[in-house]
Amino acid sequence: xxxxxxxxxxxxxxxxxxxxxxxxxxxxxxxxxxxxxxxxxxxxxxxxxxxxxxxxxxxxxxxxxxxxxxxxxxxxxxxxxxxxxxxxxxxxxxxxxxxxxxxxxxxxxxxxxxxxxxxxxxxxxxxxxxxxxxxxxxxxxxxxxxxxxxxxxxxxx
Length: 157
Known about the structure:
three-stranded antiparallel sheet, three-stranded mixed sheet, 2 helices, 24% helix, alpha/beta
């Protein structure tokens, strides 16, 4: 297996100038487009408490989504290696972000709640164990400085 360095690029464009730029805190929109070549444009904004558009993705949503999807993809890979056939996977992920009183803050944890269905009951133990391997393999979880916890359930069909 070859180890490599992978680079990612995107373009984030602020679209919120209502004519006076950032002349005041309430005078501009937080609307942003995020573009990656060859992919659909993502409409983003700040979270609603920070004067954002609640119909658009915000950075906090995207961080939790990144952790959830990274674990999911790492988990599927771990299951293949363990001979586990996954037939369904649903994650109800959540996170806690705490403001620090200075205009900033940080996530204190993210909780992933994967609900996995495997093809046969004999695979359940290996499927449960594969979550540990997935956590170890997940690039995103290994890149954050807060706990990413798992409360997984595994059943068979």
